Write a sequence for this structure.
C-alpha cells in the first residue's frame, strides 16, 4: 500500500506526555510519544502491560481521569484541530462521532441493564439527535452489518443474552454508528477464543476498509499485528522504541526490545522446536526510571552510553525509525 | 494403538464429568446435566508433555481437575502410576496427591495475599507432614526458591510485592514441594506478557529435564502448546477430536476443527500472513447444555456430510499413533 503523505495526516500525536500522580511519585505512563495515522490506514501500537499503549489511546480521546492522571504536554492534532485545546463539551462532540473507541472487555463495557439497541444507538441519539424510530432502524442495520443473526429481534436483547463474540460485534456496531473517521480498538479480541478472534478482526478490518476509516489497533499480540496492520509502533515503558511498516518491523527489527519480543514468541513453524529466547528481567518502575535508555537494564547489547543518555528515534529508511544507541546489526 | 515403550504414568479411559443444572427459585429441581467431559481417553507416558487445546468451555480444565479427583466423576477410569484412583476416598487420595500437582492460570488469585511466600511454598510440606525438622524445612524452601530462579531472601515477602511472572514462579515452586511426578499446568502463561511468558516456558522445560517431570499442559494458545508439547490433544465440546505428536499435528492436521484452529492463529510475519488462506469458522461453540447430535462439530464444519449430524464419529488411529474422530477418516 502506498500512502503519499502530501496531505496532513488524519491524526498527529506530537510529544505526548501523560503522567499519573501516585503515592510512590509521578508515574510517567506516556513519556514523549509521537506518531501519525493517515486516513484509511491501520496502525498498530504493540507493547506489554504497562507500556502505555492504552493510556496513549485514552489520551487521544481525552478520557484520562484527572486526578490522578494529567496530559502534561504535547499536541494531538485530529483533522486540523488540536484536541487538547478543546473545551470538554467540544471534545464530547468529537468523541463517539468522529473518533470512536472499541474497548477490550465486551463483558464489562456494555451496560447489563440496557438493551443492545439502546447502547448501539446511543451515539446516533446523542450526535445526530435522530428520532427513536430512526435510531432503531439504524441499529438493526448496524447489527446486520456486524453479522449478528436475526437483528430485528436481537436489537431488544440484553447483553447477557449475547455470547462473548456477539458482544464484541455489538461493541463494533456501536463504534461504527456515527461513521467515524478514526476508530481506536484497545485489545478488541483479547478476551475471545482464537476462532472467534479471527472472525471479529476480519470483520473489523473489512468494515473499516468499507467506510474508509482509519484504525488504531492496540494489542500485545504480534501475530494479530502482522496480519492486520499497515504500520506498527512498538512501545516500551511509555515511549515508542521502534516504528515502521509491518514488513520493516518483522523482517528487519532493529531495536533490541523488538528483537527480544520476536524471539520470545513461540512460532507455529514446521513443528520443529526452537528454544525460546526470553527477555530477561522485568520492565522498569515507571515512577523511577533509569536515567538512560529505559530498556538498558534488560538489554543484552547495553553499553556505557546507554546508561547515561536516552536515545531518540532516528530514521533509517522510509518510515522505519528506532531509538537505540547500538546498531544491533553490527553487534550480532 | 500408541506405541507403549513402558507402562503409562497416567491412563484415562472414557472419562465423564457431568454438572447438574439447577432450576426453580431455590435451585431445588434439576433441568438436566451439562456433559463437560464426555468420554475422554488418553495415555500419558512418564517424562512427556501432553498439550491440551480447545476453546473456552471445551472441558480442558475440567479434565485436569477430574484427573486430580477434585471433581466428582460420572464415569470412566483413571489409572495413575499403576493404581486405579477412580473410586478412592478423600483419605485414600491424600498420599497420591503428593505425586500429582497443579499450577494455576491466575498468578494473582492462586496465592494467599496474607501469607509470606515461604509459607505458601512450605504449606504442602506441612500439610503432608514432611516438615519434621525446622532446619530441613527451611533448607527445602530455599532450594525450591532457587530452583525456580528466585532469591532465597524473597521468601520473606508477600505475594503483592511480586510481578506476574515471579508469582507464577512461586506457584511452580509450591507445586514442586512434594516432588510430584505429574504436574497439570492450567493455562500457566496466558496471563503473562510475551517476554515473561517465554521465561516461564523455558523454566518449565528445564525443570522437566532436571526432575523428570510429566506435564499436562492446558492452554488455548496453540503456538505455546505446540512449542512445549510432545503430543497435543485437541478438545471440542467435552470430546477429544484429535491426538497427535506436535510435528504430526502441525504438518498433517486431520480434523477440520484442528485445521481451523491452526489457521486462525496469526503468525508474526506479514509476508506469511499475506499469502495465507484462512479457514474462517462460522458461528461460535454451541451451548454444552444442548450439544448437537452426531459429531459435535458438524454445525460449524466446512466439510460436514449428512451422516455427521446423525452418528458420532468413531476414533481412528493410524500407524504413527495419530488419532482422530471424524467421519472423513472412518
Amino acid at each position: 500500500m502506498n500512502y503519499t503523505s502530501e496531505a496532513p495526516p488524519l491524526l498527529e500525536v506530537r510529544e505526548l506526555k501523560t503522567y499519573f500522580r501516585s503515592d510512590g511519585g509521578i508515574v510517567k505512563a506516556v513519556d514523549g510519544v509521537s506518531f501519525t495515522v493517515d486516513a484509511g490506514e491501520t496502525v498498530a501500537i504493540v507493547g506489554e502491560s504497562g507500556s502505555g499503549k492504552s493510556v496513549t489511546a485514552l489520551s487521544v480521546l481525552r478520557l484520562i481521569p484527572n486526578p490522578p492522571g494529567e496530559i502534561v504536554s504535547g499536541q494531538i492534532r485530529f483533522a486540523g484541530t488540536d484536541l487538547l485545546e478543546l473545551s470538554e463539551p467540544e471534545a464530547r462532540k468529537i468523541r463517539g462521532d468522529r473518533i470512536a473507541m472499541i474497548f477490550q472487555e465486551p463483558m464489562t463495557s456494555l451496560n447489563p441493564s440496557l438493551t443492545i439497541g439502546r447502547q448501539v444507538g446511543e451515539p446516533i441519539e446523542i450526535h445526530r439527535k435522530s428520532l427513536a424510530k430512526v435510531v432503531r432502524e439504524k441499529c438493526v442495520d448496524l447489527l446486520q452489518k456486524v453479522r449478528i443473526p436475526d437483528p430485528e429481534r436481537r436489537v431488544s436483547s440484553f447483553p447477557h443474552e449475547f455470547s462473548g463474540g456477539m458482544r464484541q460485534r455489538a461493541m463494533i456496531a456501536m463504534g461504527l454508528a456515527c461513521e467515524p473517521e478514526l476508530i481506536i480498538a484497545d485489545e478488541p479480541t483479547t478476551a475471545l477464543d482464537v476462532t472467534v478472534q479471527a472472525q471479529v478482526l476480519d470483520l473489523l478490518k473489512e468494515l473499516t476498509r468499507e467506510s474508509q476509516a482509519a484504525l488504531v489497533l492496540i494489542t500485545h499480540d504480534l501475530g494479530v499485528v502482522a496480519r492486520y496492520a499497515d504500520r506498527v509502533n512498538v512501545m516500551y515503558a511509555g515511549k515508542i522504541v521502534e516504528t515502521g511498516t509491518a514488513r520493516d518491523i518483522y523482517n528487519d527489527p532493529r531495536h533490541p526490545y523488538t528483537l527480544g519480543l520476536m524471539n520470545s514468541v513461540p512460532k507455529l513453524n514446521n513443528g520443529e522446536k526452537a528454544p525460546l529466547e526470553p527477555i530477561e528481567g522485568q520492565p522498569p518502575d515507571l515512577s523511577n526510571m533509569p536515567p538512560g535508555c529505559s530498556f538498558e537494564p534488560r538489554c543484552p547489547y547495553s553499553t556505557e552510553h546507554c546508561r547515561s543518555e536516552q536515545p531518540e528515534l532516528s530514521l533509517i529508511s522510509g518510515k522505519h525509525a528506532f531509538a537505540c544507541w547500538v546498531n544491533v546489526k553490527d553487534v550480532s | 494403538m500408541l506405541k507403549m515403550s513402558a507402562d503409562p504414568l497416567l491412563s484415562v479411559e472414557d472419562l465423564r464429568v457431568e454438572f447438574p443444572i439447577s432450576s426453580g427459585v431455590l435451585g431445588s429441581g434439576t433441568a438436566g446435566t451439562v456433559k463437560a467431559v464426555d468420554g475422554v481417553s488418553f495415555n500419558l507416558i512418564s517424562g512427556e508433555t501432553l498439550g491440551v487445546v480447545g476453546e473456552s468451555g471445551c472441558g480442558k480444565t475440567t479434565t485436569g481437575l477430574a484427573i486430580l479427583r477434585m471433581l466428582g466423576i460420572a464415569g470412566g477410569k483413571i489409572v495413575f502410576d499403576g493404581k486405579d484412583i477412580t473410586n478412592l476416598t478423600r483419605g485414600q487420595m491424600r498420599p497420591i496427591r503428593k505425586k500429582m500437582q497443579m499450577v494455576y492460570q491466575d498468578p494473582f488469585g492462586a496465592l494467599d495475599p496474607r501469607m509470606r511466600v515461604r509459607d505458601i511454598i512450605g504449606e504442602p510440606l506441612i500439610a503432608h507432614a514432611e516438615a519434621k525438622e525446622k532446619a530441613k524445612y527451611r533448607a527445602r524452601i530455599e532450594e525450591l526458591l532457587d530452583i525456580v530462579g528466585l532469591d532465597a531472601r524473597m521468601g520473606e515477602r508477600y505475594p503483592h510485592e511480586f510481578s506476574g511472572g515471579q508469582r507464577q514462579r512461586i506457584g511452580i515452586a509450591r507445586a514442586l514441594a512434594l516432588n510430584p511426578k505429574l504436574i497439570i499446568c492450567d493455562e500457566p502463561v496466558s496471563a503473562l506478557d510475551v517476554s515473561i511468558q517465554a521465561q516461564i516456558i523455558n523454566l518449565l522445560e528445564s525443570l522437566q529435564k532436571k526432575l523428570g517431570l510429566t506435564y499436562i499442559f492446558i492452554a488455548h494458545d496453540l503456538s505455546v502448546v505446540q512449542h512445549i508439547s510432545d503430543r497435543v490433544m485437541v478438545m471440542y465440546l467435552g470430546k477429544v477430536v484429535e491426538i497427535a505428536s506436535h510435528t504430526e499435528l502441525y504438518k498433517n492436521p486431520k480434523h477440520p476443527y484442528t485445521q481451523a484452529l491452526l489457521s486462525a492463529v496469526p503468525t508474526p510475519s506479514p509476508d506469511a500472513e499475506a499469502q495465507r488462506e484462512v479457514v474462517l469458522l462460522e458461528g461460535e461453540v454451541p451451548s454444552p447444555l444442548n450439544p448437537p447430535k452426531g459429531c459435535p462439530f458438524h454445525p460449524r464444519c466446512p466439510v460436514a456430510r449428512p451422516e455427521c449430524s446423525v452418528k458420532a464419529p468413531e476414533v481412528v488411529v493410524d500407524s504413527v499413533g495419530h488419532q482422530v474422530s471424524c467421519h472423513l477418516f472412518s
Observations:
- DSSP finds twelve helices and twelve strands in chain A.
